[in-house]
Design a protein that fits this description.
Length: 72
């Protein structure tokens, strides 16, 4: 039976970069590596939100992206 083996995780913070001349939304992001597998959701969100405050761009959302190996 196959299983998933945790490889790594990153936290990604998204920002509102304004609008293009065509009126399309510009999205910007910053990625923070080496997020712990068992990171508390509230703690992770708070940490990423605080890091977003260092940017001049408005914070829109945060996400955790995990990578896993499929093993047999």
């Amino acid at each position: 039976m196959a299983a998933l083996e945790f490889k790594n995780a990153v936290g990604r913070v998204h920002f509102d970069g304004g609008l293009t001349e065509d009126g399309k939304l510009i999205r910007k992001s910053k990625t923070y590596r080496n997020i712990a597998k068992n990171a508390d959701v509230d703690g992770l969100y708070n940490a990423l939100e605080q890091l977003a405050q260092l940017s001049a761009l408005p914070f829109t959302n945060a996400e955790k992206v995990e990578t896993s190996n499929v093993i047999d």
